[in-house]
Amino acid sequence: MFWSKNSIIDKVSKISNTLGDISADIFCGINTDSEYLHKLSLSDENSPETPYKCMGLNKEINLERELVYPFIDSAFSNEYAVHPSSYCFMLPYEIKADGLRKECRLLEPDELKTGYPLVYSRITDFKNNFKHDSTPLSSADYSVGDCKLLQYINTPKIVVSDHYSFQASFDAAGNSIFEKGCGIVLQDSSNYFYVLAALNSSISRVFSEICQNDRLFNGSLTPGVLRRFPIVFPDEKNLEALISTLSSYLTYIHGQIYRTAPPYTPGSEDYELLKFYERLVNLLVLDTYFTKDLDPRFQEILEGNIVPFGEYPGCGNSEVSGFEDSRCFMNELQAVKQKILDTPDFGKCRFNSEFTNILATLKNNGAW
């Protein structure tokens, strides 16, 4: 069969299983009219003793850090890992940390005054001096409204933003606040890394075409759109585990690269390492969605060299972190890459003509 752009789109659009079917919830980010109240700049040192800075003003303030959360800046690339941001977000809420879905309660002014006097002072000063309102403080002055994200604070989640194309990052701690984009909490936590790989693959670019053709996408990513994202799992559990492990590698690599400057240097060792694992994941995901006809030797070589994080010495039970020397683990991943490339049969592995046709069509249409 010859795979044209339209036949690829038609194939993906007919996949019946969707992200909505496997998700516990999909929801929007936070929306507030008082961004200058809630959003703060981090100090250069970002230490517990260093004050925050008012957004847009050269003024330092101290706040109780229990009510301050990390912030995901959609201006940055947030592919696989959350990009470190220079902002944080103040939330005067009580959040109970039990269960998948949390109970959240807006703290009353008297509670803030007694328990969090620095936050109380910040809100009062903002109301008096920025809004020029001297009336008594009300909880409505600092509420962020009925935001479902608050119910999933401290719950692991995928955060998807539309940064030229869909970009999905894994917030393992689940405590990051975001404005633009959507959060995804899955029913089965073991699926996070596989779904992360699918959302960052060429399938997401095909899905964007489907949304535009069906006029589902008006320039703003919504939960309704994401619920329709097609999901196909491999028939073999070994292959699903392989894709998930590679996805966890990419989450780690992106996280390390985001902390360097400049973040991406084409031709650098880290950049080439990233692209190597990205190509492997994309190939495996595309084969799962379209042909399910991998060269058995190709899969065998990958499974013989790629192991979960927990199987590396010193990593413990962590899936993403746990290595004290991050560069040491980057070196481990370089060694794994080299072992794969040095395997005599690796260069002889071939894809069938149908799958090669799909890759060529995707490449010609900017989706590979």
From TrEMBL:
Name the record gives this protein: Uncharacterized protein
Natural source organism: Methanosarcina lacustris Z-7289
